């Protein structure tokens, strides 16, 4: 089961990275101070910015971030684009660190961190203007079921942005 897979271990390393910058465990943070450490996908924060521009995100929109990790994409969207974000993460350690970092960035009014499974977590039907996911979908075996579920969570004119791995053809 994916919930027990150690996909990202030693997540507390971000605190060591911050300490090397002279930032203590209770010090306030700016999201950009975390950008080198809180993106678990290709091209880091630039990929998040590109996604936001491609789907025309604005400060009036509510975004679901599936597999939100340490919350880096959510903090970027909230701080740079003004979006409200529900950051959904399955792994407890990632969720806990993400929640702490977001609070220290004073973005917890715009970002709600939720620990849960994207296949079953209670979320509002047609409640999101956009759903984003960076390097998460390939970890979920029931992809077709997940994508159908995500479609139900989008408003009728909503946008879906997925950055992930894929196979172009079966290789035998």
Commentary on this structure:
- The chain has six helices and five strands, in the order H-H-H-E-H-E-H-E-E-H-E.
- The protein has helices at 13-20, 31-34, 44-54, 72-81, 92-104, 143-153, and strands at 62-66, 84-89, 111-115, 128-134, 154-163.
- Strands 3-2-1-4-5 form a five-stranded parallel sheet.
- The protein starts with 12 loop residues before the first helix and ends in a 9-residue tail after the last strand.
- The mean pLDDT is 87.
Termini, distance in Å? 27 Å
Please report the total strand number as a whole number.
5
- Please report the number of helical segments: 6
Secondary structure class reads alpha/beta
Whole-number mean pLDDT: 87
Measured on Cα atoms, how large is the radius of gyration? 16 Å
Strand content: 15-25%
> Which stretches of 5+ consecutive residues score pLDDT under 50?
none
- The best one-word shape is globular
Widest β-sheet, arrangement of strands: 3-2-1-4-5
Main sheet?
Answer: 5 strands, parallel
